[in-house]
Amino acid sequence: MTTSDAQERARANRRETSGPRREELLSAAAACFDELGYTATTVELIAARAQTSRPTFYAYFRSKDEVLLAVTEQVCAELESTQQLEEIESLPPVTVLRSTTRAFAETIFAHGSLVALIDSRAGVDPDVDELWTTLRRRLERRFTQYLSGLDPATIDPCVQPERLVSMLSDSIVRGAARLGRATDEVREQFINDQIRLTERAIGVTDDALPEP
């Protein structure tokens, strides 16, 4: 084995292992991408933000693209977790819709402009696109299955559930992503508007709404 082969194997082992240094680099990369965008962010800036060196960066990631992919994985995991409610079958539909809509939007807000960047990069980076598209499809499929399993007396969707879920997904992802730098008041208004839109589109019946 040559020296370069040994170094690459060491780097591969580090990339596969989570640890404080890797997490610091991921956090620094996320902050740089959020504040500066993809093009202006460099390996040197990420390393400086993490208070480490360029060689240390390359011990964990091969490139800026690879660290963006790792950041995307983290963001996708966080967004997916917002749609997982315990004992969801026993909750009123309106409670599920309001809770998941708020949690999803607030998680997007928490990442500033990062979700907008990921959504944009998915159009030009096949690896990011695979992660992002897989997440979107998984969430939409889960939501569609949830709606399809509800008592027909509690909802009246304005269009076929699968198409409706896709449209609502686009609305909240793109809408919330554009408000990464907005005030808390504007964000709260967006969430309330999105909840009302969702309830109207799904056709939550009066009987399913909580008592005033």
Automatic annotation (TrEMBL):
Organism, as annotated: Saccharopolyspora ipomoeae
Protein name according to UniProt: TetR/AcrR family transcriptional regulator
Disordered as annotated region, ranges: 1-21
Classification via PANTHER family: HTH-TYPE TRANSCRIPTIONAL REGULATOR BETI (PTHR30055:SF234), HTH-TYPE TRANSCRIPTIONAL REGULATOR RUTR (PTHR30055)
Transmembrane segments: none
Keywords: DNA-binding, Transcription, Transcription regulation
Residue range(s) of DNA binding per entry: 42-61
Pfam family membership, one: TetR_N
PROSITE patterns: HTH_TETR_2 (PS50977)
Domain of life: Bacteria
Alphabetical list of InterPro entries matching this protein: Homeodomain-like_sf, HTH-type_TetR-like_transc_reg, HTH_TetR
Keyword Signal: no
Chain ranges of the HTH tetR-type domain: 19-79
